[in-house]
Amino acid sequence: MIKSIMRVALVPSVNGFGHTRRLLSIAVPLRNKGIDCEFLLPCQLGYKSKLVEIITQKNFQPKIICSNGTDEGPYINFRKHSDCFSTYNKDTIKIFDHVICDTVTWLHNWHTSTFLFAQFTWTIFADNYKKIIEKDLTYLQFKKIYGMKYFTQSSLLRLKTFQSTPILDYWGLSKFANVKAEPKILIAGNGAENIFNLLKGFDIDLNSEIVYGLENYVKHNSKPLGIICRAGLSTIVECLSANIVPILLKSTDAELLHNYTIAVNMKWAVPFDLIFAKSKEEQINYLYEFQDNICRPEVLLSTEFVNLTLMKEIA
Q1: Residue 306 burial class via C-beta count within 10 angstroms: exposed 0-12, middle 13-18, buried 19 and up
Q2: What is the spatial distance between Cα 246 and Cα 58, in angstroms, rounded to a whole number?
Q3: For residue range 274-301, what is the model confidence (pLDDT) as tens digits?
């Protein structure tokens, strides 16, 4: 039983939207328990308005805490120390009882009770290309690190503070897993990158129905058989939760290629290049057969993760 109002800060990486969506799925059940949750966005990015929109849809009011007038792009969250908190110091963040961040490793020693959600860490090179790296991460002082085990790099798995989780079902989409899918293929249009740029050169009907948010679509429409999407982890796990086949576009981005390779090798997803070499009828037949034979991973509701695991750490 929580005897007084607990305050929790949630700090997502601003490299895309999935980190924010994952923390939202944690924040909502925490709020339902009477915990005061506040989102802090360390960004001056051009798409920060979209991040604010995503957060306010769940009735949170985020604070933009990067106010030094610079725009360092999405790489700021990978730095051990960042100027983006120049006007938001360590003493200020200590007003919270706990800090929960997603792929923001440089916050590890800013608070004595900081939790990290992450599958991998990054480094920055002079050419500004992101690369997944394996290095000694024992310096990280997080109270606990959580990651979805199938997608987590080995240097995190080895840490004593690391605890693996099943695939997290953010918004209860697993209740649609046994619902018969309609013979249609949709396009996920809510990623940080314009998906239509990735579809140039392919013989595909770009007038296909666009999904801006799988959660709302599935809850208010018939379930599609497949979704054409970038290999963002949040989109992949939402598809797996609802038993919709992710049709993944291959990317040179290290994070997306990492997710793509795992999902395809585990036979949880279909490569876009493979399916769209077929006729429309062949696509549908292939996807139904693929869906019938998929060995879906263990899925855990984010709400259950909070109840069974996180609350034991923060209560």
Answers
A1: buried
A2: 25
A3: 988 888 899 999 999 999 999 999 999 9
Measured CA to CA, the distance from residue 236 to residue 240 in angstroms comes to 6
pLDDT band at 255 (very low <50, low <70, confident <90, very high): confident
| Torsion sign over Cα 64, 18, 118, 1 | positive
Domain ranges for the chain: 7-166+300-314, 173-297
Level-2 CATH architecture, domain 173-297? 3-Layer(aba) Sandwich (3.40)
Dmax (CA) for the chain in angstroms is 61
CATH, domain 7-166+300-314, list 3.40.1050, 3.40.462, 3.40.50, 1.10.760: 3.40.50
Does the reported pTM lie above 0.90?
A: no
CB contact at 8 A, 196 and 220: no
- Residue 191 CA to residue 236 CA, distance in Å, equals 12
Angle at 54 between CA 84 and CA 15, to 5 degrees: 40
Q: CA distances (Å), 162 to each of 82, 140, 157, in order?
A: 24, 11, 6
Of 206, 277, 211, which Cα lies nearest the Cα of 244? Answer: 211
